[in-house]
Automatic annotation (TrEMBL):
<dbReference type="InterPro" id="IPR016135">
    <property type="entry name" value="UBQ-conjugating_enzyme/RWD"/>
</dbReference>
<keyword id="KW-0539">Nucleus</keyword>
<dbReference type="Pfam" id="PF05773">
    <property type="entry name" value="RWD"/>
</dbReference>
<feature type="domain" description="RWD">
    <location>
        <begin position="1"/>
        <end position="91"/>
    </location>
</feature>
<dbReference type="InterPro" id="IPR038840">
    <property type="entry name" value="RWDD3"/>
</dbReference>
<dbReference type="GO" id="GO:0005634">
    <property type="term" value="C:nucleus"/>
</dbReference>
<keyword id="KW-0963">Cytoplasm</keyword>
<dbReference type="GO" id="GO:0005737">
    <property type="term" value="C:cytoplasm"/>
</dbReference>
<dbReference type="GO" id="GO:0033235">
    <property type="term" value="P:positive regulation of protein sumoylation"/>
</dbReference>
<dbReference type="InterPro" id="IPR006575">
    <property type="entry name" value="RWD_dom"/>
</dbReference>
<dbReference type="GO" id="GO:1902073">
    <property type="term" value="P:positive regulation of hypoxia-inducible factor-1alpha signaling pathway"/>
</dbReference>
<protein>
    <recommendedName>
        <fullName>RWD domain-containing protein 3</fullName>
    </recommendedName>
</protein>
Length: 243
């Protein structure tokens, strides 16, 4: 997966297999977002793996960002990939040790463990009515909640739900003929970017339904994010879309 925009930079996914970590091979899925002023600015990095816990994935991400700071102002993605291939074993072992030292009081009581959130940006919708209906159906079928938000030319999709359902939604979004091109022929979505993908935190409000909403001002849109405890998410990803 590769996405490029003069406004937002470039996003791409890399999958690597690291052998013999905790007696197994680890498939590591890395998402890099390089802002337009990279490498003067650090990349955003997302780490996923079916063989690692969320805590371990977070530790891997933190270690990669630590390494990235050492390479500031110089191209670093290749070096980061080489580094994690060489050091994943140590990071995972250290993470497992820290986890074992923590109390287990919360074990089995967390209801938010599998709830994830993703924020998507769409460049346009030519066949808006059909597109909106399709998004609503996918969200309903996959039991995802959130918002499809329109503000001027900005189109955002905020989804919450099981991580597997969100992944399935992304596949549908990228592979289905959901819109029409300039010749009114059915086409796939080629101008979508993943602005953020993260686990729902305790300060985040859970959406109970999926709604389509239109906002006349940026302040109205901002209030929607603030009400959901997503002020940081808004300030980090939405204002740059206006530039």
């Amino acid at each position: 997966f590769l996405y490029f925009s003069e406004m937002h930079g470039i996003s791409f996914r890399i999958q690597i297999i690291v052998k013999e970590v905790l007696d197994t091979d680890i498939l590591l899925k890395l998402l890099f977002h390089l802002p337009v002023n990279y490498p003067s600015t650090l990349p955003d990095i997302s780490v996923n793996s079916d063989q690692l816990t969320r805590a371990q994935c977070t530790d891997v991400k933190d270690k990669l960002l630590e390494q990235a700071k050492k390479h500031l102002a110089e191209p670093m993605v290749h070096d980061l990939i080489l580094w994690i291939q060489q050091h994943l074993k140590d990071v995972v072992k250290q993470s497992a040790t820290v986890c074992n030292e923590k109390t287990t009081l919360s074990k089995g009581t967390s209801t938010e463990d599998d709830i994830w959130m993703i924020l998507l940006h769409l460049d346009h919708m030519r066949a808006k009515a059909k597109y909106v209906k399709t998004v609503e159906k996918w969200a309903s079928d996959l039991r995802l909640t959130g918002r499809l938000m329109f503000m001027g030319k900005i189109i955002l999709i905020l989804l919450q739900g099981d991580r597997s359902s969100i992944k399935e939604y992304l596949i549908l979004q990228k592979t289905s003929k959901v819109d029409v091109d300039s010749s009114r022929k059915k086409c796939r979505e080629k101008m979508m970017s993943v602005l953020c993908e993260t686990e729902v935190q305790s300060q985040h409000k859970r959406f109970q339904t999926f709604e389509v909403k239109e906002y006349s001002t940026l302040e109205e849109l901002q209030k929607e994010f603030e009400t959901a405890g997503l002020t940081t998410l808004f300030s980090e990803f939405v204002p740059p879309l206006l530039k």
